[in-house]
Write a structure and sequence with these properties.
The chain is mainly α. The longest helix has 22 residues. It has one domain. It is built from five helices and no strands. It starts with a helix and ends with a helix. The radius of gyration is 20 Å and the shape is extended.
């Protein structure tokens, strides 16, 4: 699923994000898709839930604890500009 979104955002492949993504996430997705249904059917639904929540928490905590967490800049948003843009766009459709 992530590769599909990456192809939408970076369709020409100028960034090397796909290489990093393939190494980091594809293995995890294969394991989850392979083992989650089997564990659910055999009654180990709490095990897969616990493992997924713990792993997700560790993934989020690791950069925070190592000082690698990126703070995003806050930008002010003018909703009127967005509404006007949507109105112009919808008029072009008809």
């Amino acid at each position: 699923m992530g590769i599909v979104f990456l192809n939408i955002v970076d369709s020409e492949g100028k960034s090397k994000t796909l290489d990093d993504y393939a190494l980091a996430y594809v293995g995890v997705e294969i394991v989850i898709v392979s083992f989650a249904p089997e564990l659910m059917m055999t009654g180990h639904h709490w095990l897969i839930t616990l493992v997924t929540v713990v792993a997700g928490s560790l993934i989020l905590l690791f950069p925070k604890l190592r000082g690698m967490w990126v703070k995003l800049k806050r930008y002010s948003v003018d909703l009127n500009k967005g509404i006007d843009c949507l109105r112009r766009w919808s008029m072009n459709l008809s």
